[in-house]
Design goal:
8-stranded antiparallel beta barrel, about 160 residues, mainly beta
């Protein structure tokens, strides 16, 4: 195994290259403001099973000069409780920064599963604001679970104080 820096890990995630070594970002992260991304609870179906995604408010942090949103997630599958999962969610902001929430755009990130420690989930988000310049809108969120990609559609709002 080779070691990598936080900056190279963030760069690798941006291009969806699987990471084998994940550093705990909370050791390097500092809250830059009271900005946060609020994501409503989402539901979808996988065959006959309903799957629910709950995401905590994502706080805006700075890691090695890169802005990143960090929060917790929980996936619940009532028909198969063994498939329930929770962990931390990381969403690095690209060069557009916070403008992606008002203008729309796409971000990629990852989820570190606490339920399945050997699994690192890839995350893809598409933000579509309700109105031009609005900081709330529709969120298409795709999570790669290894054997399938699950798509959730929900609403978001971004606040900065």
């Amino acid at each position: 195994m080779r070691c990598c820096t936080v900056a190279s890990c963030l760069g690798a995630v941006r291009y969806l290259i699987p990471l084998w070594i994940v550093l705990p970002l909370s050791l390097f992260a500092q809250v830059t403001s009271s900005s946060k991304l609020v994501v409503e609870e989402a539901r979808t179906r996988v065959f006959i099973a309903e799957v629910t995604l709950a995401v905590s408010d994502l706080a805006l942090l700075e890691v090695d000069g890169t802005p990143i949103l960090k929060g917790r997630y929980e996936i619940r599958v009532p028909l198969r409780k063994s498939k329930n999962e929770s962990g931390e969610l990381f969403l690095p902001l690209d060069e557009t920064g916070e403008a992606v929430f008002a203008q729309g755009g796409e971000l990629t990130g990852w989820c570190d599963s606490e339920t399945f420690p050997d699994a690192q989930r890839r995350l893809y988000c598409r933000f579509t604001p309700f109105d031009s310049g609005s900081r709330n809108g529709r969120l298409d969120l795709h999570i790669d679970l290894g054997n399938r990609t699950v798509k959730f559609v929900t609403n978001y709002s971004f606040t900065s104080e």
